[in-house]
Amino acid sequence: MATRRQHRRAFPLVPLLLALMAAAAYGRLISDGSPSAPLVSVIRLAAPAAAAAAEGKCEQSYGFLPCTTTVLGNLFLVLVYGFLMFKAATYLSAGSELLLEIMGPGLVGGLLLPILGALPDALLVLVSGLSGSKETAQSQVLIGMGLLAGSTVFLLTLLWGTCVVVGKCDLGPNREAVDLTNTKGFSLTGTGITTDVQTSYAARIMGLSVIPFIIAQFPKMLKTHHGQRLAVLLALIASFLLVLSYCLYQVFQPWIQRRKLAYAKHKHVISGILRHAQMQALGRLLNDDGTPNDDVIRKLFHKIDIDKSRTLSRAELHALIVGINFEEVDFDRMDAVDKVMDDFDTSRNDAVEEEEFVQGMKKWLNEAKRSVPASGAFSNKFINEFHERTRQEHDQLIDRSDEVVESVENPGWCIAKAVGFLLLGAAIAAAFADPLVDTVHNFSSATHIPSFFISFIALPLATNSSEAVSAIIFASRKKQRTCSLTFSEVYGGVTMNNTLCLGVFLALIYFRNLTWDFSSEVLIILVVCVIMALFTSFRTTFPLWTCLVAYMLYPLSLVIVYILDYVFGWS
């Protein structure tokens, strides 16, 4: 049955407007000590804040955005601009996902979408050394290196380890994780996760992505300054060749895109069923305090149970799914039935009993609560908001039947909406990347904390938090296939960071003739990437203790940089 989706996701512009209004209002008090900051008629493209800071003042980005020299003021602005970069990443993610659903795996998904995913990080890296004099650029470019190193280390340590913790299941006799079984608590050797072999291929690709770092660092390894500029140029060429190769690999071997496509589409099974249940006028699925309403869930079960057998058969689930408006995407209904059955039928008797249905619905509702921040009572609108989420509603990963691109009605409107999301995300990222870098630099000056450490810790949270939440929620499904997709996404993000974002950084170094003096920073990237690549490329099962290894690499990275730079004077 053809269906039509009227709304995919109504991204709220209100938080963006509130953030801008707050920043503007706050700026009247903090701009340069005067009651109000005048609006400069000529908007500059970049703000060399360091020169103004040297005179005890700050210079407004674009001539009108607020600035300050105080610690709390800069902290506030870092939060505001960081939130705006987070929204930019969310819009880009939503537009990319919608475009992939419409166009399917191919040139668009293989060439364009990986680049769009890395755009916020790339823009922040670009503006960190684009403005001001050569001395200013050399000072601020350390923020770009901090983001570059911080994003890679964050994805492979804190996020990787957390996904192992939330996705862990009992390890069976063959040392593979048993889906949906978690009876051994936090046993370091008896629980863990298992991925498929394709995920290890993604890890190997990630390992190869460190080659440009090695090329750029080669003269430093030889302890010579000769040939450093040539090494940067060669590393720059290698970076973009690797980006092109990785994108072409996805075009001609589109299993990565197909995973993302299944990842995006199957969420409508969960959200569609929840919304359909809410619309049946049987009562609210959630109480005012956010707890699932058992009575309403049981009423829904009895309504679906047409033959009154007190179990739901595949035929009854199929009838339910056929009657749901899944909107523009025409799903394979039988495949959706298989996934619902697999998620609810914990006894594996090919039927969903009443208690299994109640527990399954509770699990879905709790996932919805984690995905959609609730304000006040949990109303009918809550379920609709969950349905409209584009990246934070997840269920199982794919098998071969998932790799079919369903037809889409009204593709012109969908493409226009996807392009609108992409343009909005790109515009926000381009507009606020430079103010964020300036604010981090000002905060560093105000606190006397090296800008590298601030950008290493703070900026990856702004640009990667949306993907991190999605990965954690998806890993919490506790299945091999969902874990496989989660870790493939993590390795893909690191690959683009080590190639595209590094390429942008190397271009700054080369064309602005800046000094390549990042030995300690490059070392921690190499250490973390090589350890995790070797660790994940040749095995598919990861016991719980492996998360401790990942977690320890994060503070170790900071300690290494501090000791090498401030004790041994590497930089």
From TrEMBL:
<keyword id="KW-0050">Antiport</keyword>
<dbReference type="InterPro" id="IPR002048">
    <property type="entry name" value="EF_hand_dom"/>
</dbReference>
<dbReference type="GO" id="GO:0005509">
    <property type="term" value="F:calcium ion binding"/>
</dbReference>
<feature type="transmembrane region" description="Helical">
    <location>
        <begin position="487"/>
        <end position="512"/>
    </location>
</feature>
<comment type="similarity">
    <text>Belongs to the Ca(2+):cation antiporter (CaCA) (TC 2.A.19) family.</text>
</comment>
<dbReference type="InterPro" id="IPR004837">
    <property type="entry name" value="NaCa_Exmemb"/>
</dbReference>
<keyword id="KW-0812">Transmembrane</keyword>
<keyword id="KW-0406">Ion transport</keyword>
<feature type="transmembrane region" description="Helical">
    <location>
        <begin position="518"/>
        <end position="535"/>
    </location>
</feature>
<dbReference type="Pfam" id="PF13499">
    <property type="entry name" value="EF-hand_7"/>
</dbReference>
<keyword id="KW-0732">Signal</keyword>
<dbReference type="GO" id="GO:0005774">
    <property type="term" value="C:vacuolar membrane"/>
</dbReference>
<keyword id="KW-0739">Sodium transport</keyword>
<dbReference type="GO" id="GO:0006814">
    <property type="term" value="P:sodium ion transport"/>
</dbReference>
<feature type="transmembrane region" description="Helical">
    <location>
        <begin position="139"/>
        <end position="166"/>
    </location>
</feature>
<comment type="function">
    <text>May function as a sodium/calcium exchanger (NCX) and participate in the maintenance of calcium homeostasis. May play a role abiotic stress responses.</text>
</comment>
<dbReference type="InterPro" id="IPR018247">
    <property type="entry name" value="EF_Hand_1_Ca_BS"/>
</dbReference>
<dbReference type="GO" id="GO:0015369">
    <property type="term" value="F:calcium:proton antiporter activity"/>
</dbReference>
<feature type="transmembrane region" description="Helical">
    <location>
        <begin position="230"/>
        <end position="252"/>
    </location>
</feature>
<keyword id="KW-0813">Transport</keyword>
<keyword id="KW-1003">Cell membrane</keyword>
<feature type="domain" description="EF-hand">
    <location>
        <begin position="332"/>
        <end position="367"/>
    </location>
</feature>
<dbReference type="GO" id="GO:0006874">
    <property type="term" value="P:intracellular calcium ion homeostasis"/>
</dbReference>
<dbReference type="InterPro" id="IPR004713">
    <property type="entry name" value="CaH_exchang"/>
</dbReference>
<protein>
    <recommendedName>
        <fullName>EF-hand domain-containing protein</fullName>
    </recommendedName>
</protein>
<feature type="signal peptide">
    <location>
        <begin position="1"/>
        <end position="27"/>
    </location>
</feature>
<feature type="transmembrane region" description="Helical">
    <location>
        <begin position="98"/>
        <end position="119"/>
    </location>
</feature>
<feature type="transmembrane region" description="Helical">
    <location>
        <begin position="201"/>
        <end position="218"/>
    </location>
</feature>
<feature type="domain" description="EF-hand">
    <location>
        <begin position="292"/>
        <end position="327"/>
    </location>
</feature>
<dbReference type="GO" id="GO:0005886">
    <property type="term" value="C:plasma membrane"/>
</dbReference>
<keyword id="KW-0472">Membrane</keyword>
<dbReference type="InterPro" id="IPR044880">
    <property type="entry name" value="NCX_ion-bd_dom_sf"/>
</dbReference>
<keyword id="KW-0915">Sodium</keyword>
<feature type="transmembrane region" description="Helical">
    <location>
        <begin position="453"/>
        <end position="475"/>
    </location>
</feature>
<keyword id="KW-0479">Metal-binding</keyword>
<keyword id="KW-0106">Calcium</keyword>
<feature type="transmembrane region" description="Helical">
    <location>
        <begin position="63"/>
        <end position="86"/>
    </location>
</feature>
<keyword id="KW-0677">Repeat</keyword>
<dbReference type="InterPro" id="IPR011992">
    <property type="entry name" value="EF-hand-dom_pair"/>
</dbReference>
<keyword id="KW-0346">Stress response</keyword>
<feature type="transmembrane region" description="Helical">
    <location>
        <begin position="542"/>
        <end position="564"/>
    </location>
</feature>
<dbReference type="Pfam" id="PF01699">
    <property type="entry name" value="Na_Ca_ex"/>
</dbReference>
